[in-house]
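task queued by scheduler; priority normal; single chain, no ligands, no partner chains; default sampling; output format set to C-alpha coordinates
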Amino acid sequence: MEFTHWYLVIGALLILLVLTQGGVRRMPITTAMLYLGLGWLFGLLGWARIDSFQHTAWLEHLSEVAVIVSLFSAGLKLRVPLRSRLWNTPVFLAFGSMSITVGLIALAAVFWIGLPLGAAVILGAVLAPTDPVLASDVQVEHEDDTDRVRFTLTGEAGMNDGTAFPFVMLGLGLLGFHDLGAYGWRWWAVDLFWAVGGGLASGALLGAAVTRLVIYLRRHHREAAGMDDFLALGLIAAAYGFAQLLDCYGFLSVFAAGLAVGSVERNLSDTPDEATAEKRFAVQHAPAYLAAAVLHFNDHLESISELVLVLLAGALVFSSGFDLQAFGFAFLLFCAIRPIAVAPIAVACRMRRLEMMLVSWFGIRGIGSIYYLFYAVGQGVDRSYAETMIRITLGVVSLSILVHGLSVTPLMRHHRRKQRDEGV
Protein backbone atom coordinates (compact mmCIF):
# COMPACT_ATOMS: atom_id res chain seq x y z
CA MET A 1 0.00 0.00 0.00
CA GLU A 2 1.24 3.50 -0.82
CA PHE A 3 2.58 5.49 2.11
CA THR A 4 0.10 8.31 1.48
CA HIS A 5 -2.77 5.82 1.88
CA TRP A 6 -1.62 5.20 5.44
CA TYR A 7 -2.69 8.71 6.39
CA LEU A 8 -6.29 7.78 5.64
CA VAL A 9 -6.05 4.36 7.31
CA ILE A 10 -4.40 5.67 10.49
CA GLY A 11 -6.73 8.67 10.71
CA ALA A 12 -9.84 6.51 10.28
CA LEU A 13 -8.50 4.00 12.81
CA LEU A 14 -7.81 6.61 15.49
CA ILE A 15 -11.22 8.27 15.04
CA LEU A 16 -12.97 4.89 15.14
CA LEU A 17 -11.20 3.95 18.36
CA VAL A 18 -12.30 7.18 20.04
CA LEU A 19 -15.91 6.71 18.92
CA THR A 20 -16.08 3.09 20.10
CA GLN A 21 -14.06 3.49 23.30
CA GLY A 22 -17.07 3.43 25.61
CA GLY A 23 -18.55 0.36 23.94
CA VAL A 24 -15.28 -1.55 24.15
CA ARG A 25 -15.01 -0.87 27.88
CA ARG A 26 -18.46 -2.34 28.47
CA MET A 27 -17.62 -5.56 26.61
CA PRO A 28 -15.35 -8.41 27.80
CA ILE A 29 -12.64 -7.42 25.33
CA THR A 30 -9.66 -5.07 25.34
CA THR A 31 -8.36 -2.56 22.82
CA ALA A 32 -5.23 -4.70 22.46
CA MET A 33 -7.39 -7.52 21.10
CA LEU A 34 -8.78 -5.17 18.45
CA TYR A 35 -5.30 -3.93 17.53
CA LEU A 36 -4.01 -7.49 17.21
CA GLY A 37 -6.88 -8.47 14.91
CA LEU A 38 -6.40 -5.38 12.76
CA GLY A 39 -2.67 -6.05 12.52
CA TRP A 40 -3.32 -9.61 11.37
CA LEU A 41 -5.86 -8.29 8.84
CA PHE A 42 -3.33 -5.75 7.54
CA GLY A 43 -0.88 -8.60 7.04
CA LEU A 44 -3.50 -10.71 5.27
CA LEU A 45 -4.37 -7.85 2.91
CA GLY A 46 -0.70 -7.16 2.24
CA TRP A 47 -0.84 -3.69 3.76
CA ALA A 48 1.88 -4.40 6.31
CA ARG A 49 4.66 -6.72 5.18
CA ILE A 50 7.23 -7.02 7.97
CA ASP A 51 10.27 -9.27 7.90
CA SER A 52 11.51 -10.17 11.37
CA PHE A 53 15.14 -10.29 10.24
CA GLN A 54 15.19 -7.44 7.77
CA HIS A 55 13.44 -5.07 10.20
CA THR A 56 15.00 -6.32 13.43
CA ALA A 57 16.62 -3.00 14.43
CA TRP A 58 13.56 -0.78 14.19
CA LEU A 59 11.30 -3.41 15.76
CA GLU A 60 13.71 -3.49 18.69
CA HIS A 61 13.77 0.30 19.06
CA LEU A 62 10.03 0.80 18.63
CA SER A 63 9.28 -1.74 21.33
CA GLU A 64 12.04 -0.24 23.48
CA VAL A 65 10.36 3.18 23.39
CA ALA A 66 6.95 1.67 24.17
CA VAL A 67 8.31 -0.19 27.20
CA ILE A 68 10.18 2.75 28.75
CA VAL A 69 7.14 5.02 28.40
CA SER A 70 4.97 2.43 30.12
CA LEU A 71 7.54 1.75 32.85
CA PHE A 72 7.65 5.43 33.76
CA SER A 73 3.85 5.49 34.02
CA ALA A 74 3.86 2.35 36.17
CA GLY A 75 6.39 3.88 38.55
CA LEU A 76 4.47 7.14 38.75
CA LYS A 77 1.22 5.34 39.65
CA LEU A 78 2.73 3.53 42.64
CA ARG A 79 2.54 6.14 45.41
CA VAL A 80 2.80 3.71 48.34
CA PRO A 81 5.91 4.37 50.51
CA LEU A 82 8.72 1.88 49.94
CA ARG A 83 8.61 0.83 53.60
CA SER A 84 5.05 -0.50 53.13
CA ARG A 85 4.54 -4.27 53.23
CA LEU A 86 2.64 -3.98 49.96
CA TRP A 87 6.02 -3.86 48.21
CA ASN A 88 7.13 -7.28 49.47
CA THR A 89 5.12 -9.35 47.01
CA PRO A 90 5.97 -7.48 43.76
CA VAL A 91 9.67 -7.28 44.70
CA PHE A 92 9.89 -11.01 45.43
CA LEU A 93 7.96 -11.80 42.25
CA ALA A 94 10.16 -9.55 40.10
CA PHE A 95 13.33 -11.26 41.33
CA GLY A 96 12.38 -14.69 42.68
CA SER A 97 9.47 -15.62 40.46
CA MET A 98 11.36 -14.21 37.46
CA SER A 99 14.31 -16.55 38.10
CA ILE A 100 12.08 -19.60 38.57
CA THR A 101 10.15 -18.77 35.38
CA VAL A 102 13.31 -18.36 33.29
CA GLY A 103 14.63 -21.68 34.57
CA LEU A 104 11.42 -23.62 33.88
CA ILE A 105 10.99 -22.13 30.40
CA ALA A 106 14.63 -22.93 29.60
CA LEU A 107 14.15 -26.55 30.70
CA ALA A 108 11.07 -26.87 28.49
CA ALA A 109 12.90 -25.28 25.56
CA VAL A 110 15.86 -27.68 25.89
CA PHE A 111 14.00 -30.95 26.39
CA TRP A 112 10.85 -30.28 24.35
CA ILE A 113 11.89 -27.93 21.55
CA GLY A 114 15.54 -28.98 21.36
CA LEU A 115 17.12 -25.54 21.69
CA PRO A 116 20.72 -25.32 22.99
CA LEU A 117 21.04 -24.09 26.56
CA GLY A 118 22.04 -20.53 25.62
CA ALA A 119 19.09 -20.06 23.26
CA ALA A 120 16.76 -21.69 25.81
CA VAL A 121 17.86 -19.25 28.52
CA ILE A 122 17.24 -16.36 26.13
CA LEU A 123 13.75 -17.68 25.37
CA GLY A 124 13.15 -17.93 29.11
CA ALA A 125 14.23 -14.32 29.59
CA VAL A 126 12.08 -13.21 26.65
CA LEU A 127 8.90 -14.85 27.95
CA ALA A 128 9.39 -14.46 31.71
CA PRO A 129 8.65 -10.73 32.24
CA THR A 130 5.06 -9.64 32.63
CA ASP A 131 4.07 -6.62 30.60
CA PRO A 132 3.44 -3.06 31.79
CA VAL A 133 2.02 -1.96 28.42
CA LEU A 134 -0.81 -4.47 27.96
CA ALA A 135 -1.58 -4.98 31.65
CA SER A 136 -3.33 -1.62 32.10
CA ASP A 137 -6.66 -3.31 32.91
CA VAL A 138 -5.15 -5.00 35.99
CA GLN A 139 -2.91 -2.13 37.12
CA VAL A 140 -3.56 0.38 39.89
CA GLU A 141 -6.37 2.73 38.88
CA HIS A 142 -5.42 5.86 40.84
CA GLU A 143 -2.78 7.15 43.23
CA ASP A 144 -4.62 5.94 46.34
CA ASP A 145 -5.29 2.45 44.96
CA THR A 146 -3.79 -0.08 47.39
CA ASP A 147 -5.61 -3.15 46.11
CA ARG A 148 -3.10 -5.93 46.60
CA VAL A 149 -3.71 -7.68 43.27
CA ARG A 150 -3.45 -4.54 41.14
CA PHE A 151 -0.52 -3.15 43.13
CA THR A 152 1.37 -6.45 42.90
CA LEU A 153 0.85 -6.83 39.15
CA THR A 154 1.81 -3.20 38.49
CA GLY A 155 4.94 -3.34 40.64
CA GLU A 156 6.03 -6.70 39.26
CA ALA A 157 5.61 -5.57 35.66
CA GLY A 158 7.54 -2.39 36.38
CA MET A 159 10.53 -4.21 37.82
CA ASN A 160 10.78 -7.48 35.94
CA ASP A 161 11.14 -5.82 32.56
CA GLY A 162 14.56 -4.83 33.91
CA THR A 163 15.39 -7.92 35.94
CA ALA A 164 15.00 -10.09 32.82
CA PHE A 165 18.02 -8.42 31.22
CA PRO A 166 20.71 -10.35 33.19
CA PHE A 167 19.25 -13.60 31.88
CA VAL A 168 19.28 -12.31 28.31
CA MET A 169 22.97 -11.50 28.75
CA LEU A 170 23.58 -14.92 30.31
CA GLY A 171 21.99 -16.65 27.34
CA LEU A 172 23.99 -14.55 24.88
CA GLY A 173 27.14 -15.38 26.83
CA LEU A 174 26.42 -19.12 26.67
CA LEU A 175 26.08 -18.75 22.89
CA GLY A 176 29.36 -16.84 22.65
CA PHE A 177 27.93 -13.37 21.95
CA HIS A 178 28.75 -11.82 25.34
CA ASP A 179 31.69 -12.03 27.73
CA LEU A 180 30.63 -13.68 30.99
CA GLY A 181 34.12 -13.67 32.50
CA ALA A 182 36.00 -16.56 34.09
CA TYR A 183 33.54 -18.71 36.07
CA GLY A 184 30.89 -16.12 35.23
CA TRP A 185 32.36 -13.39 37.48
CA ARG A 186 31.60 -10.61 35.00
CA TRP A 187 27.99 -11.70 34.71
CA TRP A 188 27.52 -11.72 38.50
CA ALA A 189 29.42 -8.51 39.18
CA VAL A 190 28.49 -6.36 36.16
CA ASP A 191 25.43 -7.77 34.40
CA LEU A 192 23.59 -8.58 37.61
CA PHE A 193 24.60 -6.56 40.69
CA TRP A 194 26.02 -3.42 39.10
CA ALA A 195 23.53 -3.09 36.24
CA VAL A 196 20.46 -3.77 38.40
CA GLY A 197 21.53 -1.72 41.41
CA GLY A 198 22.95 1.10 39.32
CA GLY A 199 19.83 1.29 37.18
CA LEU A 200 17.54 1.64 40.19
CA ALA A 201 19.82 4.13 41.95
CA SER A 202 20.50 6.36 38.93
CA GLY A 203 16.83 6.63 38.02
CA ALA A 204 15.75 7.35 41.58
CA LEU A 205 18.37 10.07 42.07
CA LEU A 206 17.68 11.74 38.73
CA GLY A 207 13.90 11.61 39.09
CA ALA A 208 13.97 13.01 42.63
CA ALA A 209 16.48 15.77 41.79
CA VAL A 210 14.64 17.01 38.70
CA THR A 211 11.24 16.90 40.38
CA ARG A 212 12.44 18.79 43.44
CA LEU A 213 14.08 21.40 41.21
CA VAL A 214 10.93 21.94 39.14
CA ILE A 215 8.72 22.19 42.24
CA TYR A 216 11.14 24.66 43.86
CA LEU A 217 11.12 26.87 40.76
CA ARG A 218 7.33 26.80 40.59
CA ARG A 219 6.75 27.50 44.26
CA HIS A 220 9.32 30.24 44.77
CA HIS A 221 9.90 31.78 41.32
CA ARG A 222 6.77 30.86 39.33
CA GLU A 223 9.03 29.35 36.67
CA ALA A 224 9.37 26.00 34.85
CA ALA A 225 5.63 25.64 34.24
CA GLY A 226 3.45 24.92 31.25
CA MET A 227 5.52 22.21 29.53
CA ASP A 228 4.89 19.13 31.67
CA ASP A 229 4.74 16.92 28.60
CA PHE A 230 8.32 17.93 27.76
CA LEU A 231 9.28 17.25 31.38
CA ALA A 232 7.90 13.71 31.12
CA LEU A 233 9.77 13.05 27.88
CA GLY A 234 12.91 14.62 29.28
CA LEU A 235 12.87 12.52 32.45
CA ILE A 236 12.23 9.32 30.52
CA ALA A 237 15.01 9.97 28.02
CA ALA A 238 17.49 11.28 30.58
CA ALA A 239 16.94 8.41 33.02
CA TYR A 240 17.25 5.82 30.27
CA GLY A 241 20.27 7.42 28.62
CA PHE A 242 22.09 8.06 31.91
CA ALA A 243 21.71 4.43 32.98
CA GLN A 244 22.88 3.16 29.61
CA LEU A 245 26.00 5.33 29.81
CA LEU A 246 26.76 3.75 33.19
CA ASP A 247 26.28 0.24 31.71
CA CYS A 248 23.17 -0.18 33.86
CA TYR A 249 19.68 -1.26 32.88
CA GLY A 250 17.70 1.67 31.53
CA PHE A 251 14.35 -0.06 32.06
CA LEU A 252 14.89 -0.17 35.82
CA SER A 253 16.18 3.41 35.78
CA VAL A 254 13.04 4.74 34.07
CA PHE A 255 10.79 2.82 36.46
CA ALA A 256 12.74 4.17 39.44
CA ALA A 257 12.52 7.71 38.04
CA GLY A 258 8.73 7.39 37.89
CA LEU A 259 8.67 6.10 41.46
CA ALA A 260 10.84 9.04 42.54
CA VAL A 261 8.49 11.61 40.97
CA GLY A 262 5.53 10.08 42.82
CA SER A 263 7.50 9.87 46.07
CA VAL A 264 8.58 13.51 45.94
CA GLU A 265 5.00 14.57 45.16
CA ARG A 266 3.68 12.58 48.11
CA ASN A 267 6.28 13.97 50.51
CA LEU A 268 5.99 17.62 49.44
CA SER A 269 2.22 17.88 49.05
CA ASP A 270 0.66 19.48 52.12
CA THR A 271 -2.92 18.64 51.21
CA PRO A 272 -4.32 15.83 49.03
CA ASP A 273 -6.52 18.24 47.05
CA GLU A 274 -7.37 17.97 43.37
CA ALA A 275 -4.61 19.38 41.14
CA THR A 276 -6.00 21.99 38.76
CA ALA A 277 -4.23 24.36 36.39
CA GLU A 278 -4.70 27.32 38.73
CA LYS A 279 -2.79 25.51 41.45
CA ARG A 280 0.43 24.81 39.56
CA PHE A 281 2.28 27.54 41.49
CA ALA A 282 0.56 27.17 44.87
CA VAL A 283 2.89 26.03 47.63
CA GLN A 284 0.67 23.16 48.74
CA HIS A 285 -0.57 22.07 45.30
CA ALA A 286 2.42 22.39 42.96
CA PRO A 287 3.69 18.82 43.54
CA ALA A 288 0.28 17.24 42.94
CA TYR A 289 -0.29 19.30 39.80
CA LEU A 290 3.11 18.29 38.42
CA ALA A 291 2.57 14.57 39.05
CA ALA A 292 -0.97 14.60 37.63
CA ALA A 293 0.07 16.49 34.48
CA VAL A 294 3.05 14.21 33.80
CA LEU A 295 0.97 11.07 34.33
CA HIS A 296 -1.84 12.35 32.08
CA PHE A 297 0.56 12.98 29.20
CA ASN A 298 2.35 9.69 29.74
CA ASP A 299 -0.93 7.76 29.63
CA HIS A 300 -1.57 9.16 26.16
CA LEU A 301 1.92 8.18 25.01
CA GLU A 302 1.35 4.70 26.39
CA SER A 303 -1.92 4.34 24.47
CA ILE A 304 -0.25 5.33 21.19
CA SER A 305 2.62 2.93 21.87
CA GLU A 306 0.19 0.09 22.52
CA LEU A 307 -1.66 0.79 19.28
CA VAL A 308 1.48 0.82 17.12
CA LEU A 309 3.23 -2.18 18.67
CA VAL A 310 0.21 -4.50 18.87
CA LEU A 311 -0.70 -3.71 15.25
CA LEU A 312 2.85 -4.65 14.29
CA ALA A 313 2.62 -7.80 16.42
CA GLY A 314 -0.51 -8.84 14.55
CA ALA A 315 1.19 -8.30 11.21
CA LEU A 316 4.26 -10.21 12.44
CA VAL A 317 2.12 -13.16 13.54
CA PHE A 318 0.67 -13.37 10.03
CA SER A 319 4.10 -13.26 8.35
CA SER A 320 5.87 -15.58 10.83
CA GLY A 321 3.13 -18.16 11.10
CA PHE A 322 1.49 -19.77 14.11
CA ASP A 323 1.71 -23.45 14.98
CA LEU A 324 0.62 -25.91 17.65
CA GLN A 325 4.04 -25.75 19.30
CA ALA A 326 3.47 -22.08 20.15
CA PHE A 327 -0.02 -22.91 21.43
CA GLY A 328 1.36 -25.70 23.61
CA PHE A 329 4.12 -23.48 24.96
CA ALA A 330 1.60 -20.77 25.85
CA PHE A 331 -0.59 -23.31 27.67
CA LEU A 332 2.43 -24.58 29.60
CA LEU A 333 3.49 -21.05 30.57
CA PHE A 334 0.05 -19.75 31.59
CA CYS A 335 -1.30 -22.84 33.32
CA ALA A 336 1.78 -24.46 34.84
CA ILE A 337 5.00 -22.43 34.88
CA ARG A 338 3.51 -19.10 36.02
CA PRO A 339 1.44 -20.62 38.86
CA ILE A 340 4.42 -22.71 40.02
CA ALA A 341 6.67 -19.65 40.06
CA VAL A 342 4.13 -17.49 41.90
CA ALA A 343 2.84 -20.00 44.48
CA PRO A 344 5.78 -20.11 46.95
CA ILE A 345 6.09 -16.32 47.03
CA ALA A 346 2.34 -15.81 47.35
CA VAL A 347 2.22 -18.27 50.27
CA ALA A 348 5.24 -16.65 51.95
CA CYS A 349 3.60 -13.21 51.59
CA ARG A 350 0.29 -14.57 52.94
CA MET A 351 -1.82 -13.73 49.94
CA ARG A 352 -5.42 -14.86 49.97
CA ARG A 353 -6.37 -17.73 47.69
CA LEU A 354 -8.26 -15.57 45.19
CA GLU A 355 -5.47 -12.99 45.16
CA MET A 356 -2.90 -15.71 44.46
CA MET A 357 -5.01 -17.14 41.65
CA LEU A 358 -5.46 -13.73 40.00
CA VAL A 359 -1.77 -12.84 40.25
CA SER A 360 -0.85 -16.27 38.87
CA TRP A 361 -3.25 -15.95 35.95
CA PHE A 362 -2.60 -12.34 34.93
CA GLY A 363 1.06 -12.77 34.08
CA ILE A 364 0.41 -10.96 30.80
CA ARG A 365 3.09 -11.19 28.11
CA GLY A 366 3.46 -8.41 25.58
CA ILE A 367 5.68 -5.61 24.32
CA GLY A 368 8.52 -6.31 26.74
CA SER A 369 8.85 -9.81 25.31
CA ILE A 370 8.94 -8.39 21.79
CA TYR A 371 11.75 -6.02 22.77
CA TYR A 372 13.92 -8.73 24.33
CA LEU A 373 13.24 -11.03 21.39
CA PHE A 374 14.49 -8.59 18.78
CA TYR A 375 17.33 -7.39 20.99
CA ALA A 376 18.63 -10.97 21.11
CA VAL A 377 18.04 -11.56 17.40
CA GLY A 378 19.98 -8.37 16.67
CA GLN A 379 22.99 -9.70 18.56
CA GLY A 380 23.50 -12.39 15.92
CA VAL A 381 21.70 -15.46 17.29
CA ASP A 382 21.72 -18.31 14.77
CA ARG A 383 18.83 -17.89 12.34
CA SER A 384 17.35 -21.35 12.92
CA TYR A 385 17.18 -20.73 16.68
CA ALA A 386 15.93 -17.18 16.12
CA GLU A 387 13.09 -18.37 13.88
CA THR A 388 11.93 -20.79 16.58
CA MET A 389 12.08 -18.08 19.26
CA ILE A 390 10.21 -15.58 17.06
CA ARG A 391 7.44 -18.02 16.25
CA ILE A 392 6.96 -19.11 19.87
CA THR A 393 7.23 -15.60 21.34
CA LEU A 394 4.75 -14.03 18.93
CA GLY A 395 2.37 -16.93 19.47
CA VAL A 396 2.57 -16.63 23.25
CA VAL A 397 2.09 -12.83 23.15
CA SER A 398 -0.91 -13.16 20.81
CA LEU A 399 -2.56 -15.81 22.95
CA SER A 400 -1.87 -13.77 26.08
CA ILE A 401 -3.61 -10.77 24.54
CA LEU A 402 -6.61 -12.93 23.67
CA VAL A 403 -7.09 -15.17 26.71
CA HIS A 404 -6.12 -12.59 29.31
CA GLY A 405 -8.13 -9.94 27.49
CA LEU A 406 -11.25 -12.10 27.47
CA SER A 407 -10.91 -12.99 31.14
CA VAL A 408 -9.84 -9.67 32.67
CA THR A 409 -13.28 -8.04 32.92
CA PRO A 410 -15.24 -10.92 34.53
CA LEU A 411 -12.39 -11.93 36.86
CA MET A 412 -11.64 -8.41 38.09
CA ARG A 413 -15.38 -7.77 38.59
CA HIS A 414 -15.55 -10.93 40.68
CA HIS A 415 -12.54 -9.71 42.67
CA ARG A 416 -14.24 -6.36 43.38
CA ARG A 417 -17.47 -8.07 44.46
CA LYS A 418 -15.51 -10.33 46.77
CA GLN A 419 -13.80 -7.30 48.31
CA ARG A 420 -17.14 -5.53 48.86
CA ASP A 421 -18.64 -8.64 50.45
CA GLU A 422 -15.69 -8.95 52.83
CA GLY A 423 -15.62 -5.21 53.54
CA VAL A 424 -12.06 -4.80 52.23
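post-processing summary
- The mean pLDDT is 85.
- The CA atoms of residues 126 and 372 lie 5 Å apart.
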